Amino acid sequence: MPCAAQLLQSAVTRLQSAGSDEPQANAEWLLACALNVSRTWVLANASREISPEDEAVFNRMLTRKEAGEPLSHIVGFQPFCGLDIRVTPDVLTPRPETEELAELAAAAFDRRGRYEFLDMCTGSGCIALALANKFPQARVLAADVSEAALRVAQENARIHRLTERIQFLQSDLWENVMGTFDLIISNPPYIPTADLEGLTREVKHEPRLALDGGEDGYNITRPLCQAAAGYLKPGGLLALELCKGQAWPLARGLEEIGWKAEVKKDIFNIERFVLARKI
């Protein structure tokens, strides 16, 4: 029987040939999932022999990754703000940048406060869950146009025992939203339609509805911002994630209609986040 190190070496070679990103890390995660152990265990037990049954499971997963399927779809989850978020093809895989957005927004509030938060375009519910987990006395509304995405988000809330703190709402942006909020946060679809074809194989497996921002990338962000002031409490915060080149034009547009806006960079030094308050 092959040992873990041998299986990993072969898997890395296969993933490199397939043009997969981060072949070493992906191979380690897949083997850990196949064995139902941690990635740390895999690295610490490189000489451990792997049974034919477990090897077969690993190879099936590896074949899916070679075909460009996202790792999160294969293993079924993605870590986010200390929570394992269930992921399916109906939702966008939570990314480090979005985790930064959640952390930036959270830093503006007292963890003991009784707040009303709105996560617009919630997808997997990752932002809503992170906020509900960080602010035990807050109430969070998680809204999305996709019924399938909301089912995934609700399942994530159930898994993490946060259902009492989060309300889920199917809504085409503001269509069914009522009330006012201390924070409106969103990672909306923002990729210009013409750029979708240039995305990686992994991203192309994700729902187009969660990616396509229309011709200029602002089809969702524009109406979101135009009405946001009416749904914010006095001094409330609007926090958005955008793609490269979008943050400053949006911030300037908000300032022209009476907002005070700032732009923040992500860990890759890209100006990605807009934080704004209505003056």
Full CATH superfamily name of the largest domain: Vaccinia Virus protein VP39
Helix count?
11
Count of β-strands: 9
Task: State the strand order across the main sheet.
Answer: 5-4-3-6-7-9-8
Count of the separate structural domains = 2
Measure the end-to-end span. 67 Å
Note the overall shape: elongated
CATH topology of the largest domain: Rossmann fold
The CATH C-level name of the largest domain is: Alpha Beta
Major sheet: size, sense and barrel closure?
7 strands, mixed
**Would you tell me the structural class of the helices and strands?**
alpha/beta
Structure in words:
Helix content is 39%, strand content 20%. With 279 residues, the chain is of the alpha/beta class. It folds into 2 domains: 4-67, Helicase, Ruva Protein, domain 3; 77-278, Rossmann fold (3-Layer(aba) Sandwich). The strands form 2 sheets. The chain has a 7-stranded mixed sheet, with helices on both faces. A two-stranded antiparallel ribbon has the order 1-2. Strand 3, helix 7 and strand 4 (139-144) form a beta-alpha-beta unit. The protein is elongated and about 65 Å long.
